[in-house]
Amino acid sequence: MQAGAITSYIDVAQVALYGFWAFFAGLIFYLRREDKREGYPLVSDRSDNVLVQGWPSMPRPKTFEVRQGHAYQAPPGNRETRHIAAEPLERWPGAPLYPTGNPMRDGVGPASWAERDELPEVTAEGETRVAPMRIATDFVVESNDPDPRGMEVVGADNLVGGVVTDLWVDRSEPQIRYLQVEVPDGEEGPRSVLLPLVFTRIDRERRLVRVKAIMSHQFAHVPGTQHPDEVTLREEDKIVGYYGGGYLYAEPSRQEPVI
């Protein structure tokens, strides 16, 4: 046998196949552990002392340097302790939860939100990523597109809930993210709230902004922002969750069976 002639007594194709299987199994194991850096350990319905992480177990914490200047650890190693304003319908583990308050504000079901950082997202240049056009003055509305400023916002009940006063743009992905809506009858008088553009349909002819997610009177209860010119990551989650939850909770009939 000549030197290096391994094919005469080893099935190279089979060895390559087994090697691929081993590599693929290791890849699945690695990815399955890495996807547990967020959201784990799960919360047990039986006891707070039960660690629910499945197999494989969670990976060791990895520290990331965030652009805002602080460090973030994943898995974070802490569990959310906020009260969930909902109760299980049955006693068995995993039973559906029924809201006990205002689910759109309490973050229940489709209105849920994560406890993200109370900091605004920033661009690669260090600027606040989402900002109103009164601050981001280098942005304009294209002349062929409708400018929502000054338009009335109509809820799912076809009643006016407010008036658009400004546009909030994304500096990293140049586009409109939110409409700023002036609500005349807020919780403590007139207030400004943010309306995600994805929940709207702009009626150019009638100069109306239509929103099917919530009713007109519910604009007054949209979660606000701590700063008039900034929105934090957690505030964005709460705002989007409020409108998203409206598709189920804004009106009692939306929770009923279709058929």
What class do helices, strands and sheet pairing give? Answer: alpha+beta
At the fold tier of CATH, the topology name of the domain at 130-255 is Photosynthetic Reaction Center, Chain H, domain 2
CA radius of gyration is 25 Å
Order of helices and strands: HEEEEHEEEEEEEH
CATH architecture assignment name of the domain at 130-255: Alpha-Beta Complex
Plain-language structure description:
- With 259 residues, the chain is an alpha+beta fold.
- It has a domain of 126 residues: Alpha-Beta Complex (Photosynthetic Reaction Center, Chain H, domain 2).
- It has three helices and eleven strands; from the N terminus they run H-E-E-E-E-H-E-E-E-E-E-E-E-H.
- Strands 5, 6, 7, 8, 9, 10 and 11 form a seven-stranded mixed sheet that branches. A two-stranded antiparallel sheet has the order 1-2.
Structural key phrases:
7-stranded mixed beta sheet, Photosynthetic Reaction Center, Chain H, domain 2, extended, two-stranded antiparallel ribbon, 11 strands, 22% strand, 259 residues, single chain, 3 helices, alpha+beta
